[in-house]
Sequence to fold (331 residues):
Amino acid sequence: MGPDPHEGPASDGGERRDFLTIDGMFCAACAASVEAVLNRQPGVDAASVNFAADAAVIDWSPAGEDRTRLLDAVRGLGYRARFVSDGGTTEEKTTDPARDLGLRLIVAVFFGMWSMLPSVALYIELVTDPAARLGLAIAAGILASPVILYSGLPFYRMGLATLRHRIAGVDALILLGVAGAVVLSAIALARGSPDVFFEVAIALVTLQLIARLLDLRVRRRARDAVVSLFDLAPARVRVVDAAGSERDVLLKEVQVGERIRIRPGERIAVDGDIVAGEAQVDRSLMSGESRPVLVAAPASVHAGERVLDGVLTLAVTAAVGKRRIDELGRQ
Fold:
């Protein structure tokens, strides 16, 4: 079997670049927690998570069961993850997060609407009899149960997982908010008071479900674009020494100030200034320019652009992590 196009070439030590797709992130804190966990894994040199595209790019040295361990680390936070190169299992292809969120939203809206009726009656003091008011409060709690126990379940799972790793995100806040509303309401009912807060829990869960469904639709379109963006730059480059000799090195090892050589048909891997040569460069995927541009010293070029003809020698001005392509990927 030939090399996978989504995996960077491996060196003798097995270093390469892989891409993960991650489902279930709904805030920048979620992405930060996943990135922190990935960077803690053995063999990982650098991991960057793009929240907008549900994707992660990882420079690492996998060995043995490291691939499984890496996926388990992400799944341990409550997210679904797979390597882009793996395609996906039948379960991953048939499991639709939007469908699950949509069903939970239907339950939240239906039961939330009925739970709000007794709550409104209590707030506007439509009923004044103490026993009747207590009955309405209990009814509000019973009708809110499907929303709290079913619709909000994904938030609680992820909130607990991130709290265990001491990297709390929005899910942890939802968990604490719902738990607080339920506990205070339960205490009030135990004391015979109708002053309950079930509607707060319903509002938190319902609004989050709506926001996440809208967010999921946008980010699904962005995911493929960002994974492709990271995949534009090659994982290895030719570094030119003072004597003019070339050596093939990993992209992550290239430092600012070093010189690299790009040949016809190759993509540029780093941002740099041209110090020798001239060539037609295709910038369409990075800037949208439809026609090739003739470049020569002292012009600058960027990672992701492709040399069509000629040979260019560049002085590196931005290595991995600081390139324009990296900044685009983080947005």
